[in-house]
Amino acid sequence: MTELRDRIQTVVSDEPVALFMKGTPGFIMCGNSDRALRALRGAGAPVTAVNILPDPRIRQELSDISGWPTVPQVFIGGELVGGADIVEELAASGELEQKLEEALGPDYRQPQPEERVVDVLDV
Amino acid sequence: MADRTGGGDHFQVIVESGRFDGLSLVDQHRLVYDALAEPLADGTIHELRIKTKGLA
């Protein structure tokens, strides 16, 4: 249990942009996860995705760490940015790109942003 | 407060309050989640969309 929590914490802390979602970017299982991913893609963010569905403990441990009750959850530079509503709102106002620049540097945008999937159950 | 799907468990809330002034969006939404902790925990609310606004 603590190992799982440590692995989740490592993703949160070490990945420039972490998206905890239902499904994966290639197989999205929830409309709100889709909204969050689209907003991040629109801002050119390099996304590291974690699917929370394979084990209910992932969601539980994640919410214990973040104090945020729902999924998706987006972290930039280790900091909770919010769920789909907030990320969409920030994307619309331009603040999402600003946050990405602050955390990743002004040249964070890649022509083809990298998307990775990390399995916290099996590292 | 709006029932988005008519099923009684997908809701959208728009909250305007002076308590949001000076808070980040994350902290603003946390206040809404806290206020609705019980129905969120017991599944009465399956999905919640939140829009918050300060008064300042």
Write a structural description.
- The complex is a heterodimer of chains A (about 120) and B (about 55).
- Chain A has 5 helices and 7 strands; from the N terminus they run H-E-E-E-H-E-H-E-E-H-H-E.
- Chain A is α/β, with parallel strands linked by helices and about 120 residues long.
- Chain A has a single domain (about 1-105), classed as Glutaredoxin, CATH 3.40.30.10.
- In chain A, a hairpin with a 2-residue loop joins strand 2 and strand 3.
- Chain A starts with a helix and ends in a 6-residue tail after the last strand.
- Chain B has about 55 residues and is of the alpha+beta class.
- Chain B has helices spanning about 25-35, 35-40; strands at about 1-5, 10-15, 45-55.
- The longest helix of chain B has 11 residues, at about 25-35.
- The mean pLDDT of chain B is about 90.
- Classes of the chains: A alpha/beta (about 120), B alpha+beta (about 55).
- Chains A and B meet through strand 6 and helix 4 of A and helix 1, helix 2 and strand 3 of B.
Task: Briefly summarize what is shown.
The complex is a heterodimer of chains A (123) and B (56). Chain A has helices spanning 2-14, 31-42, 56-66, 84-93, 95-104, and strands at residues 17-21, 23-24, 27-28, 47-51, 73-76, 79-82, 115-117.
